Amino acid sequence: MSRTYRLCRALRAGGGGVPVPASPFLRAPTPRGFSTSARRPLMELTGFSEEQLTVRDAVSAVCARFPSTYWQECDQNERDPKEFHAALAKDGWLGIALPEELGGAGLGISEATMMMQTITQSGAGMAGAQAIHANVYATQPLARFGTRSQLEETIPKIITGQWRTCFGVTEPNTGLETLKLRTLATKHPARDTYSISGQKIWITCAQIAAKMILLARTTPLEEVRKPTQGLSLFCIDLDREQPGLDMRKIKKMGARAVDANEVFFDKYEVPANTLIGQENDGFRIILHGMNAERCLLAGEALGLGYAALERAAQYANDRVVFGRPIGQNQAIAHPLADAYMRLEAAKLATYHAARLYDSAASASNTGEESSNTAKSNSGGSSSSSIPLHSVGVACNSAKYLAAEAAFTACERAVLSHGGMGYAMEYDVERYLRECLVPRIAPVSREMVLNYVSEKVLQLPRSY
Ligand SMILES: Cc1cc2nc3c(=O)[nH]c(=O)nc-3n(C[C@H](O)[C@H](O)[C@H](O)COP(=O)(O)OP(=O)(O)OC[C@H]3O[C@@H](n4cnc5c(N)ncnc54)[C@H](O)[C@@H]3O)c2cc1C
C-alpha cells in the first residue's frame, strides 16, 4: 500500500465528516466576549513537506473534535482522555511510524513529530501528547528487534488502540544514571520465565496500559565489565491480577489527565518470550528509540509554545486598558515577538534533527551502515553520509531548544493575560504547568548541556 494512499485514507478518515477548519489552532479563546475573528496561524509553514502538511491537516481535524473544555475537564478530574486516544487510533495515527507490513503508515519521525506538535498545538497540550506518544516511540525498538510472533501479537493491537503501552526505564534510586538501574529480571529456564523484582518511577499511563516496554538488568551491575552490559529489553503484560505487581499514582503538577506512577515488581513472573532481541543487549536496542523520542518531545514542546503564543497575541489585541489594546505597549509586544522568533528557530532545529534521524535510519535499513558503529548516549542510527554524532547532537539540541522556547512562550503568555493568565478558562496556566515536562524528560536540560559540552566542545566529561 503506497504512502500517499495511506495518507489520503488517513486524511479522509481524519476528516470523519468534520471539515478541516481554516485555522485549526484558533478555535478556543472566546470567553468574556472577546473577538472571534479568525487570525492567521503564527507558525510559518514554508519548508514543510507535503506529507508533513497533510499529516498536520488531518490530525488537526481529529483534534478539532476535542475543544479546550474537554482538556480542562480531563485535567481537573484527572480523567484519562480515552476518547481522544480512541479517535486517533480509529484513524490509524498510532501506527504513523510503524512499518506498513504491520499495519502502520510507514512514515518517518519527521511526520510523527509533526503529528505530536499538532496534538499539543490544538490545545490538547502535554496531556494529549502523553496519552499517545509511548505508543509511537516505545514501539520503535520492538518493531525493529522483535520476533515475527511478538510483532504480530502486539503491534496491530497497539495501532488499533486495543492495547496501550507504557515505557519503564526510570528508577527512583538511579535517576538519570540509567546504566545503574537495578530492576532485575532473573531467568528460570525450567519454567521458561523471567522473574522481575525492582521499582520504576514516573511511568506514564501504567494504570491503563496493557503492555510495558521494560528495561531491566539480566546481569547484576557488579558482574558486568561495563555498565552498558547486562541490560535487557522486554515487552511484558501488566497483569494487575497476577501476584508481584503493584502501582501507585503520583500526584503531579500538570498533564493530570494522564497517570504517572511508581511501579513495584516483586518476583513478578513473565514468559521468557517477552524478551526483545538478545539477552543483555537491551541498552543497544533501546538506544534505537532515544533520538526519535527527543524529536517527538521537541515537537510537543513547540506545539505548546505556539498555542500559548496564539492565545497571548489574541488577548493582547483584544484586551483594552488605558484606552488601547495592551499589545500596543512594547513591554507586552516585544517579549511576544521575541518568543515567536525563539519558537521559529527551535522549529528549524527540530525538523532538521528529525530529517537527519530519518535519513540516517533509512540508510541503515538499506544496509548502508557507517563504519562508525560506536553508540553514544543518544544514538541508534547511523549512515555513511550522516555521522551518528551529528544525529545525536541535532536531536538533543532540538529537544533542549524547543523546551526552552516553549517555556518562554508559555510564561509570557500567562503574564500577558494579567490576572486572567491565572484563570483555568484561559488555558495558558495549564500550558505553563505542562511545558515543564519537556524540560525535565526524557532527559534534563542539564544532561543535554553535559552531552554537548563533552561531545561537541570536547570538554572533560563532568559526570
Ligand atoms: C511527567 C513525567 C513523565 C515521565 N514519564 C516517564 C515514563 O513514562 N517512563 C520513564 O521511564 N520515565 C518517565 N519520566 C522520568 C523522566 O525521564 C526523569 O524524571 C528524568 O529523566 C529525570 O530523572 P530524575 O527525575 O531521576 O532526575 P535526577 O537524576 O534525580 O536529577 C535531578 C536533577 O539533577 C540534575 N543532575 C543530575 N546529575 C547531574 C549532572 N551530572 N550534571 C548536572 N546536573 C545533573 C538533573 O539535570 C536534574 O535537574 C517522566 C518524568 C516526568 C516528570
UniProtKB/TrEMBL annotation:
Task: List the GO molecular function terms.
Answer: acyl-CoA dehydrogenase activity; flavin adenine dinucleotide binding
**Protein's UniProt name:** Acyl-CoA dehydrogenase NM domain-like protein
Regions of compositional bias (Low complexity) in chain numbering: 370-383
Q: Which UniProt keywords apply?
A: FAD, Flavoprotein, Oxidoreductase
- Annotated transmembrane regions: none
Q: Where is this region: Disordered?
A: 362-383
Which superkingdom is the protein from?
Eukaryota
Q: Which residues form the Acyl-CoA dehydrogenase/oxidase C-terminal domain?
A: 280-455
Q: Which residues form the Acyl-CoA oxidase/dehydrogenase middle domain?
A: 166-267
The entry sums up its family as follows: Belongs to the acyl-CoA dehydrogenase family.
Identify which cofactors the protein needs according to its UniProt entry: FAD
Q: Which organism is it from?
A: Aspergillus heteromorphus CBS 117.55
**Gene3D superfamilies, alphabetized:** Acyl-CoA dehydrogenase/oxidase, N-terminal domain, Butyryl-CoA Dehydrogenase, subunit A, domain 2, Butyryl-CoA Dehydrogenase, subunit A, domain 3
**Domain Acyl-CoA dehydrogenase/oxidase N-terminal span(s) in chain numbering:** 49-162
